[in-house]
Design a protein that fits this description.
With 152 residues, the protein is mostly helical. Among the domains are: 54 residues; 47 residues, no CATH class. The chain has six helices and no strands. Helix 4 packs parallel to helix 6. It starts with 6 loop residues before the first helix and ends in a 14-residue tail after the last helix. One of its GO terms (molecular function) is protein transmembrane transporter activity. Keywords: Cell membrane, Membrane, Protein transport, Translocation, Transmembrane, Transmembrane helix, Transport. This is Sec-independent protein translocase protein TatB. It is found in: Cell membrane; Membrane.
Length: 152
């Protein structure tokens, strides 16, 4: 509760409490405050138990800390019911980006040639890159390629 109070601050609070309440009333005040805190904790725990009972047996492991969005998301990501780990492991972003870059620049990558050889069609990414290289070769040295607003 008071994790961020240092020893000097604690001594300052004790001295201030002695000055404000006096040495005679201070023990009685500490007892009253501790009794009040205990009652608040008991009330809070009974309210939590009532809510759990009203929710039913399917929420018996429900914790109120789960209502914090960060805790909820962390807990849901640990429960991998949707198979997200398999999807994440099956997707290699670097390989995909390398294939796209090779197709745009007109280079044949090892993966692209393997995929075009197995598919047997020339309408894939490799076929598109061949068409792009043909268009580049047909442009003159000082001529700029046409601007494509949809591509940007």
């Amino acid at each position: 509760m008071f994790n961020d109070i240092g020893p000097l601050e604690l001594v300052t609070l004790v001295v201030l409490a002695v000055l404000v309440f006096g040495p005679d009333k201070l023990p009685k005040m500490i007892q009253d405050i501790s009794r009040t805190i205990r009652k608040i904790r008991e009330f809070s725990e009974s309210a939590k138990q009532d809510i759990r009972q009203e929710l039913g047996p399917e929420f018996k492991d429900f914790e109120f800390e789960d209502l914090n969005p960060k805790t909820f998301i962390r807990k849901q990501l640990e429960n991998d019911d949707l198979g997200l780990k398999e999807i994440r492991n099956g997707f290699d972003l670097k390989k995909e980006m390398a294939e796209v870059a090779d197709a745009v620049h007109g280079r044949d990558s090892d993966v692209a040639t393997a995929s075009s050889g197995s598919s047997g069609s020339s309408s894939g990414a490799v076929g598109g890159s061949v068409d792009m290289t043909k268009k580049r070769r047909s442009l003159e040295a000082d001529e700029r390629p046409p601007f494509d607003a949809d591509a940007t």
